[in-house]
């Protein structure tokens, strides 16, 4: 139905869906901060598991919908392109936090571990693409391994949060993860959790509309699936991560901001699991194009730079942002230029 709309209505539907996803994500960020305080799970863990997964739901719908339609490149590039874009958003958020480098101020063992997990999870599709073309019931074994690795990573991240084996050095710029209102931890998390679930439904519906619009543009105008996926729908469905990150930074919830991006990226690797299941012509890893691999490598490189920044914890770099933020902007800008002009 959406695919048959004239171009002006198609654009309007995409913009409305994107706006709905963004506004729902703003409200979700505030609720995630409240849930983190009331459950005592901490901002980094709630940001990585709950907020990161919720704001990624629109992208999941896009990738699964594209894969079920047989467009492997669109499904894959939407997933990995979103990871690169969302990592860039941390660099943008660093510009907003004027006191010090964001990665320095938001020191948290759980965020550091989840970044390591993200590198591991991004390496698995790369191994699948380089390995033999195998699939059982149309699903590559790496998809199962990817899902299991994510579950194990979630469990270990919780343990790192509860029983950290090291502590970051506190400085004047380090932001403590503590409730602003001491009474908040005594209140029930049920109501904000239910509202949060309703917002997830809105974001999922918006993702479906955006995915349908992207497929219509590809088929109608003959654009490359990797271009529309990595730079079109991936960026649009990643806008909630940008908004939630900026909102969290302005609220002073720095661990939530960093954890939301890293956790969202970690969750985004599961797009590939869902896409591989939905794609019925064999393994999705061997049906993608070179440009899709390019964006996977870009996301992996940017994540490595982010990990280095979290470890080094530079207080101030050029213009009060960390050198890792400058590098992440440069890497994404170069990848963007190559995609468009090469």
Please report the distance between the alpha carbons of the first and last residues: 35 Å
**What fold name stands as the CATH topology?**
A middle domain of Talin 1
Overall shape = globular
CATH architecture title:
Up-down Bundle
- Overall pLDDT level: 83
What's the Cα radius of gyration?
19 Å
InterPro entries: K/Na/Ca-exchanger, NaCa_Exmemb, NCX_ion-bd_dom_sf
GO cellular component, one term: plasma membrane
Keywords: Membrane, Transmembrane, Transmembrane helix
Pfam families: Na_Ca_ex
Could you walk me through the main structural features you see in this protein, from its secondary elements to its overall organization?
- It is found in: Membrane.
- It comes from Roseovarius nanhaiticus.
- This protein has a single domain, classed as NCX, central ion-binding region (A middle domain of Talin 1).
- It is built from 13 helices and no strands.
- The protein has helices at residues 7-39, 43-55, 57-68, 72-96, 102-105, 109-130, 141-162, 190-221, 225-251, 254-268, 270-278, 290-312, 323-341.
- The protein is globular and about 55 Å long.
Please specify the SSE layout and strand pairing.
Blueprint: H1 7-39, H2 43-55, H3 57-68, H4 72-96, H5 102-105, H6 109-130, H7 141-162, H8 190-221, H9 225-251, H10 254-268, H11 270-278, H12 290-312, H13 323-341
How would you briefly describe this protein structure?
By secondary structure, the chain is mainly α. It has helices at residues 7-39, 43-55, 57-68, 72-96, 102-105, 109-130, 141-162, 190-221, 225-251, 254-268, 270-278, 290-312, 323-341.
């Amino acid at each position: 139905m959406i695919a048959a709309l004239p171009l002006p209505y198609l654009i309007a539907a995409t913009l409305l869906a994107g706006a709905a996803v963004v506004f729902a994500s703003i409200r979700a960020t505030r609720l995630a901060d409240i849930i983190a305080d009331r459950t005592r799970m901490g901002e980094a863990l709630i940001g990585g598991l709950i907020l990161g997964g919720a704001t990624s739901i629109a992208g999941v719908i896009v990738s699964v919908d594209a894969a079920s339609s047989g467009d492997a490149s669109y499904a894959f590039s939407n997933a990995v392109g979103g990871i690169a874009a969302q990592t860039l958003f941390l660099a943008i958020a660093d510009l907003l936090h004027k006191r010090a480098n964001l990665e320095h101020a938001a020191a948290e063992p759980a965020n550091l571990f989840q970044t390591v997990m993200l590198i591991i999870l991004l390496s698995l599709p790369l191994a699948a693409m380089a390995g033999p073309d195998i699939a059982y019931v149309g699903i590559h074994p790496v998809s199962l391994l990817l899902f299991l690795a994510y579950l194990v990573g979630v469990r270990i991240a919780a343990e790192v949060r509860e029983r950290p084996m090291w502590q970051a050095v506190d400085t004047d710029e380090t932001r403590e993860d503590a409730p602003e209102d001491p009474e908040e931890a005594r209140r029930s998390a049920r109501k904000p959790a239910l509202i949060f679930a309703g917002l997830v439904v809105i974001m999922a519906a918006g993702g479906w509309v955006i995915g349908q619009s992207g497929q219509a543009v590809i088929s109608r105008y003959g654009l490359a699936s990797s271009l529309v996926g990595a730079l079109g729908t991936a960026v649009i469905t990643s806008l909630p991560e940008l908004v939630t990150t900026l909102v969290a930074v302005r609220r002073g919830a720095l661990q939530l901001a960093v954890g939301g991006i890293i956790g969202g990226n970690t969750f985004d690797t599961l797009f590939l699991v869902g896409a591989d299941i939905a794609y019925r012509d064999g393994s999705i890893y061997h049906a993608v194009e070179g440009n899709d691999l390019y964006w996977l490598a870009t996301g992996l490189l940017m994540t490595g730079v982010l990990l280095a920044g979290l470890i080094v914890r530079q207080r101030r770099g050029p213009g009060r942002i960390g050198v890792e933020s400058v590098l992440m902007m440069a890497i994404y800008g170069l990848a963007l230029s190559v995609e468009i002009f090469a």
